[in-house]
C-alpha cells in the first residue's frame, strides 16, 4: 500500500495543488499506509513543537529587512560604489555584478531577491556595453547564491532551527565561504573578459570613489550592525533581525524614502514568504515524525556501517543527493525533507554541525542556478527576457566552478570553522 504515497503525491502535484498541501497530504497517506494512523492524534503537538523555535523569529524580520532595502534605493548606491571600486578593470561591469551581490547579500540574505534586484539594474547596463544578455543573466544568477551563504542568510536560520545549531556560529561561518565563492566568480569573469574582450567602465562613467563610498556607507553599515552585534554578544540573531528592520527603514529614508505602498508591499511580501515557509515546515514535520516512528535515521546509520563508508565518503554521497535534490526542489523543501534524515548520520560519523550546515546550504544554493528548475534562473529569465534554456547553457561553467568551491569546503572544514572558533562562537 505504500506505493500509493508517491502516486498520490504525483497526482496532487499534477493538479496544481500548492507544494505544502502536496507534502502534507502525502504525509497523511504515508501514516495510513504504514499503519501508524493512530499517531495522527499527536501530530498537531509535534508540528507546533517543531516550529516553536525562537531563532525562527529572525527569518521574517530579515526577509522584511531585504524587502525594505531593495525598495529604498540601497541597490543603486551599492552598484555605484562597486563601479567606483573595480569598474575600471577589464570586464568591469561583470566584476561590479559580483561585488554588488556580495554587498547586497549582507542585507537581503536571499538569492532570489539579489537576482531580481540586479536583473533590473545591472543586466541592462551590461547589455548596453556589449555583453550578451545570456552572459549578463548567467553571471547575475551565479553570483546571487552568495546571498544564502553570508549573513544574514535565511536558509542558515532555517538549518539552525532544524538541527538546533547556533545561528550566530552559522552566520560567522558563512563569511569566508561566501568570499571564496566571490573570488572564484571574479576569476571566471576575468577569464571571460580576456577571452571575449569585455570592456572596462570608461573613466567618465565611473563615479568618484569617496563620494560613492559616502553614499553607500549607510547600506554598508547594516551587515556590520547585524554581524557585529551577534559576534560581540550584544544581540541574539533574532534581536539583530529586529534592529536590522529599524536600521533598514532609516537607510531607506536616507536614500529615496519609502512611499506608503512600498511599506505595504514589503509587509505583504514578507507575510506571504513567511507563511509559505512555515506551511512547508509544518507539512515536512509530519514526515519527520513518521521517519522517527519508522526509525529511518537509524536504518540509514546501519546501512552506512554495512557499506563501510568513511565520514568523508558519506559526506560526498550526501552532497550528491543534495545537488540532485536542489535541481528539482525548492531549497526550503529540500532542507526540511532531507536534513533530518541524512544529517544525524553525518553527525554520528563525526561531522561538525556548523561545517555541515555551511556545506548543505551552499550545496542547495547551487540548485538555484541549476536546470531544470533553478529558482534564480527563472527569476533572471523572467526579468531580463532571456530564454530560460539559453540562460541555463550559459550558466553551466559558473555551476562547475561553484561545485569546485563546494568540494573545497568539504575537503577543508577550516574555511568554515576558522572564524567561529576565533571569535569564541564555536568549539
Task: Report what the structure shows.
By secondary structure, the protein is mainly alpha-helical. The chain has one domain. It has helices at 4-14, 19-33, 43-51, 58-71, 74-86, 92-108, 111-128, 133-144, 154-163, 167-173, 175-196, 209-231, 237-254, 260-293, 296-307, 311-328, 331-348, 353-366, 375-384, 388-411, 414-422. It is globular and about 70 Å long.
Counting helices, strands and paired strands, the structural category is mainly alpha
What can be said about the biggest beta sheet? none
Instruction: Classify the oligomer.
Output: single chain
Q: Give the number of domains.
A: 1
Percent strand? under 5%
Share of helix among residues? over 70%
Rounded radius of gyration (Å): 22 Å
- Helix and strand pattern: HHHHHHHHHHHHHHHHHHHHH
The best one-word shape is globular
Number of helices: 21
List the helices and strands and how they pair.
Elements: H1 4-14, H2 19-33, H3 43-51, H4 58-71, H5 74-86, H6 92-108, H7 111-128, H8 133-144, H9 154-163, H10 167-173, H11 175-196, H12 209-231, H13 237-254, H14 260-293, H15 296-307, H16 311-328, H17 331-348, H18 353-366, H19 375-384, H20 388-411, H21 414-422
Helix pairs in contact: 1-2, 2-14, 3-14, 4-13, 4-14, 5-6, 5-12, 6-7, 6-8, 6-11, 7-8, 7-19, 8-19, 8-20, 9-17, 9-18, 10-21, 11-20, 12-13, 14-17, 15-17, 16-17, 16-18, 17-18, 18-20
